[in-house]
Amino acid sequence: MAKPIVAIIGRPNVGKSTLFNKLAGRRIAIVEDTPGVTRDRLYCEVEWLNHKFTLIDTGGIEMETEDVILKQMRRQAEIAIETADVILFMVDGKTGITADDYEVANMLRRTHKPIVLAVNKIDNIEMEANKYDFYNLGLGEPITISAALGLGLGDMLDEIVKHFKTVSDDEEESPEIKVAIIGRPNAGKSTLLNRIVGEERSIVSDIPGTTRDAIDSYVEIGEDKFLFIDTAGIRRKSKVKEEVEKYSVLRTIAAIERADVCLVMIDAQEGVTEQDERIAGYAHEAGKGVIIVVNKWDVIEKDDKTMNEFTKNIRNDLAFLDYAPIIFISAKTGQRVNKMIELIKYVANQHAIRIKTGVLNEVISEAVMMKQPPIEKGKPLKIYYVTQASTKPPTFVFFVNDPEVVHFSYERYLENQLRQHFGLQGTPIRFIYRSKQED
Ligand SMILES: Nc1nc2c(ncn2[C@@H]2O[C@H](COP(=O)(O)OP(=O)(O)OP(=O)(O)O)[C@@H](O)[C@H]2O)c(=O)[nH]1
Ligand SMILES: Nc1nc2c(ncn2[C@@H]2O[C@H](COP(=O)(O)OP(=O)(O)OP(=O)(O)O)[C@@H](O)[C@H]2O)c(=O)[nH]1
């Protein structure tokens, strides 16, 4: 099930960062151990009761004059409308409603997306009454919070997660493989999509005055159904370079969250760049199936060694994606595009694989017999039992004597053993350790 996306929008200074920091559990922006990925506050994972969702921040660029703020907020709202399942509209309960708040509320009211209106900076009971003004926005009941003091956040989260159920029900019924084509501008994403979809591509634009840049395309190829999520072309005119980049990143993250398989598209003429590393890092972090697609292979002068050299360099630059297959294509000529489609099917299957507990334990016991765990902190690791807890990505729970004594290199060894036996190409896998005494 795709994790829902909640987008937070609001004027500068209403307290978005403060709320972010309060809610962020794991993955604020990106964990540091993925190389090439910088830490910036763009998104975080939030867990509330039994729900997990991704909170994205659509704002945060410094603006000076009043009308620029409004322009900026309109953009935020557009992005939120495009990418989010639920929109969290944050206003300042201390300053009261502003004209910009009205403008944005008008835009939001026209969408079918659920909106949660949070009135921030209500630090004490006496200030509660400030909320009545905000009914005028016509977005329903305002929820008062104090991000700084952590007040009212539970009620706000309850309201947010209330809107999830219908979203995930829809998604679960769809049988198609969801594929996100991600990569730097100019890598050839649109060209590839057009090659696959051809004339049938349907352009959906449900927001007046804006073009939807992320367009879903349903494609049936033989018996198989695919949904391609395109992230190409951030074509909004903006003079602020960081702004354009930030939007393109947010859209990429939203596309990745919805996908089963991500095609990380590399321009063969450019090789792997830092931006490629970062984009690939998002897909890896999100636990999605990944295929590295080297495009524009037609323009590369090649001999019998070229492909090996490229492979070596990519493995080196994107070491954390060692499980991802690499394919060399030309979106322009169509070279290996059919093969790539087959690969997508294969990786989607691997990503959704379920391994029976019996076989799983046989493989792990054999692995342990072949190579005993090293002694950590004076204590040998004992693995009692392994079971696959979930899929997409395959997640294995190890019941052990002490989770603290699992060594990174031994985990690597076990992962390799599982990969040797079960394939698992193109999918990250996750290990969770439980102390047996706990249960
Ligand atoms: N009194 C009070 N102040 C708050 C609260 N939440 C945030 N603030 C203050 O409001 C100011 C702005 O907070 P930020 O979290 O940086 O606001 P922001 O919306 O992220 O701002 P941008 O990054 O410009 O978009 C800071 O001085 C915070 O300390 C709150 O619940 N109560
Ligand atoms: N030679 C060659 N050129 C290609 C190939 N794929 C794309 N191109 C060219 O590369 C340029 C960029 O392609 P697009 O498909 O627009 O790239 P994009 O990734 O969608 O770019 P954005 O919309 O900016 O994100 C165009 O001029 C394409 O014709 C290819 O396989 N071979």
From TrEMBL:
<comment type="subunit">
    <text>Associates with the 50S ribosomal subunit.</text>
</comment>
<dbReference type="InterPro" id="IPR032859">
    <property type="entry name" value="KH_dom-like"/>
</dbReference>
<dbReference type="Pfam" id="PF01926">
    <property type="entry name" value="MMR_HSR1"/>
</dbReference>
<dbReference type="InterPro" id="IPR003593">
    <property type="entry name" value="AAA+_ATPase"/>
</dbReference>
<dbReference type="Pfam" id="PF14714">
    <property type="entry name" value="KH_dom-like"/>
</dbReference>
<feature type="binding site">
    <location>
        <begin position="10"/>
        <end position="17"/>
    </location>
    <ligand>
        <name>GTP 1</name>
    </ligand>
</feature>
<dbReference type="GO" id="GO:0042254">
    <property type="term" value="P:ribosome biogenesis"/>
</dbReference>
<feature type="binding site">
    <location>
        <begin position="183"/>
        <end position="190"/>
    </location>
    <ligand>
        <name>GTP 2</name>
    </ligand>
</feature>
<keyword id="KW-0342">GTP-binding</keyword>
<keyword id="KW-0677">Repeat</keyword>
<feature type="domain" description="EngA-type G">
    <location>
        <begin position="4"/>
        <end position="168"/>
    </location>
</feature>
<feature type="domain" description="EngA-type G">
    <location>
        <begin position="177"/>
        <end position="352"/>
    </location>
</feature>
<feature type="binding site">
    <location>
        <begin position="120"/>
        <end position="123"/>
    </location>
    <ligand>
        <name>GTP 1</name>
    </ligand>
</feature>
<dbReference type="GO" id="GO:0005525">
    <property type="term" value="F:GTP binding"/>
</dbReference>
<keyword id="KW-0690">Ribosome biogenesis</keyword>
<feature type="binding site">
    <location>
        <begin position="57"/>
        <end position="61"/>
    </location>
    <ligand>
        <name>GTP 1</name>
    </ligand>
</feature>
<comment type="similarity">
    <text>Belongs to the TRAFAC class TrmE-Era-EngA-EngB-Septin-like GTPase superfamily. EngA (Der) GTPase family.</text>
</comment>
<feature type="binding site">
    <location>
        <begin position="230"/>
        <end position="234"/>
    </location>
    <ligand>
        <name>GTP 2</name>
    </ligand>
</feature>
<keyword id="KW-0547">Nucleotide-binding</keyword>
<comment type="function">
    <text>GTPase that plays an essential role in the late steps of ribosome biogenesis.</text>
</comment>
<dbReference type="InterPro" id="IPR006073">
    <property type="entry name" value="GTP-bd"/>
</dbReference>
<dbReference type="GO" id="GO:0043022">
    <property type="term" value="F:ribosome binding"/>
</dbReference>
<feature type="binding site">
    <location>
        <begin position="295"/>
        <end position="298"/>
    </location>
    <ligand>
        <name>GTP 2</name>
    </ligand>
</feature>
<dbReference type="InterPro" id="IPR031166">
    <property type="entry name" value="G_ENGA"/>
</dbReference>
<dbReference type="InterPro" id="IPR027417">
    <property type="entry name" value="P-loop_NTPase"/>
</dbReference>
<dbReference type="InterPro" id="IPR005225">
    <property type="entry name" value="Small_GTP-bd"/>
</dbReference>
<dbReference type="InterPro" id="IPR015946">
    <property type="entry name" value="KH_dom-like_a/b"/>
</dbReference>
<dbReference type="InterPro" id="IPR016484">
    <property type="entry name" value="GTPase_Der"/>
</dbReference>
<protein>
    <recommendedName>
        <fullName>GTPase Der</fullName>
    </recommendedName>
</protein>
